[in-house]
Design a protein that fits this description.
CATH topology of the largest domain: Quinone Oxidoreductase, Chain A, domain 1
Order of helices and strands: EEEHEEEEEHEHEHEHEH
Largest sheet: 5 strands, antiparallel
Bound molecules: NADP nicotinamide-adenine-dinucleotide phosphate
CATH architecture of the largest domain: Alpha-Beta Complex
CATH class of the largest domain: Alpha Beta
Number of domains: 2
């Protein structure tokens, strides 16, 4: 079958023939329709991810959308090594397949799950966002950041502040639920954070300078504290 095969860490994968996957106990064959290219695939292939492969070759792609032999259309995650989502067929545990609503097309469903679940879990499971709270999203102009802004609002956040360096995209985020935006490429970033002070939840997709400036703002005496666990 055709597959995106990685033979060398740090080099791009190539379209090659790869052996057919054969499902074992508790597994299913998936006829792949779509597989999204996300940061995690690039990190795995470049050797910078903690789960980067130590044995090669492998097929790239950690999740996607496809059909089971019985015709069920599913989102699937975690294909069995060395198989991957970027191939005509792959093999995964049946428990890692989830039926998709008809209204959602293959590409959207494949692209949405990883960043969407990541943003949703961060807000609900980790941050335990309560209605009315204020959320700051650092790196809000990326796929996951945009979803975090929208999901925070849907979960009842009182105020969502979106921070990013891409002004054009930043300006579109109010339509997705942002109440305020912060440009990350300005010299007085700590002051800009301080003006919006009172964050209950901070989601940081960036680290580096934007985070340094936030820490500087948080530790300044002028930084307002709005309540329990407020930054
Ligand atoms: N654990 C999980 O399951 C999970 C799931 C999804 C994502 N993630 C992680 O979340 C992060 C974002 O993923 P994504 O899919 O949203 O990626 P993405 O769509 O490529 O977005 C990355 C964002 O970061 C911004 N950015 C990069 N460097 C920056 C800098 N130095 N200063 C300011 N902004 C900067 C980019 O801004 P520009 O638009 O201006 O370039 C872009 O908006 C990645 O680290 C990814 O691995 C984790």
């Amino acid at each position: 079958m055709d597959a995106a095969v990685l033979r060398t860490i740090g080099k791009p994968p190539r379209l090659e023939q790869f052996p057919e996957p054969i499902p074992g106990e508790g597994e299913v064959l998936v006829h792949v329709r779509a597989a999204a290219l996300k940061p995690v695939e690039k990190q795995l292939a470049s050797g910078t991810h903690y789960a980067s492969p130590t044995e090669l070759p492998v097929v790239c792609g950690v999740d996607g959308v496809g059909y089971l032999d019985d015709g069920t259309r599913v989102f699937f995650g975690g294909p069995r090594f060395p198989f991957g989502a970027m191939a005509e067929r792959t093999v995964v545990a049946r428990s890692r397949c989830f039926e998709i609503p008809e209204a959602l097309d293959d590409a959207t469903a494949a692209a949405l799950a990883n960043p969407g679940v990541s943003a949703w879990l961060t807000l609900t499971w980790r941050a335990k966002l309560a209605p009315g709270e204020t959320v700051l999203v650092l790196g809000a102009t990326g796929v996951t950041g945009k979803l975090a802004v929208e999901i925070a609002k849907l979960l009842g956040a009182g105020r969502v502040v979106a921070a990013g360096r891409n002004e054009q995209v930043l300006n579109t985020l109010r339509e997705h639920g942002a109440d305020a935006t912060i440009r990350l490429d300005i010299p007085d970033l700590a002051e800009a954070y301080a003006r919006e002070a009172g964050f209950n939840v901070v989601i940081d997709y960036l680290w580096g300078r934007p985070t340094e400036a936030l820490l500087a703002a948080m530790t300044s005496p002028e930084f307002a504290v709005a309540g329990r666990e407020t930054l």
